[in-house]
Amino acid sequence: MSHFFTMEDFQIAADFIRKRTAHRPKVGMILGSGLNGLAEAVEQADIIPYAEIPNYPVSTVEGHVGRLVIGTLEGQEVLVMQGRAHFYEGYTMAQVGFPVRVMQVLGLETLIVTNAAGGLNLSYRPGDVMIIGDHINLLGMAGQNPLYGPNIDALGPRFPSMNGAYDPALRAIAREAALQAGIPHHEGVYICLAGPSFESPADVRFLRLIGADAVGMSTVPEVLVARHGGMRVLGLSGISNKLIGEEGAPPPNHEEVLEAGKILVPRLETIIRAVLRRL
Ligand code: HPA
Fold this sequence. Notes:
The protein is α/β, with parallel strands linked by helices.
């Protein structure tokens, strides 16, 4: 499907959302697998199912609720995506990036993006938080990029930089909050694969070798769109499983991803609340 969205497509979705809430958030959040519970803390929430929003991609994955929760958290107005669509579900990269573009058109300035990820770095343990310091856009290197196609100059430049994509000041706040709360945390490199198959032991060794600390199937497409559009980004990975890269090591599975989410939700909530207080 060679379909590219137009400015009008983004505006129609943004207008639809604006009519359904009096909140005018400046901060957007995307909640990953097993992390939907974070949205329960949002106060004075207006809720919009994705299925009602024109062109909005709906997640088909267990652990992804599929609705926007717009309200306040720590006194900040926030727009929270409870669940996300992934490339492996059959969506185009343009569709995966669509919600972030709508955020930009709505005037949001900051994106906090979370995901569940497998730990490649041998010092990482399930339940740890990785503050994303940088990413490897493996999917982009393979020719799949949400910015592929005609550039809409009003939204961002043709060739956006990915230097400092993960805002250094936001990372510092996140680190400080994690340290204060005694949350085991790291700063590292996230790598995005297409999925849905998990990595083979040889894949795991390859990904570690090229400098990745955690691997998942999301986040990078959304960050590319956010940075193209000039939004500040904070990325947080919840390490849900350890990847050893040896034949016979226990394979990752979706159940442990959802299970680790239970430990990770309060940890990520602590960090995100601290960031919202200081924005
Ligand atoms: N690999 C890829 N994606 C993931 C993993 C993993 O081990 N865990 C959670 N998301």
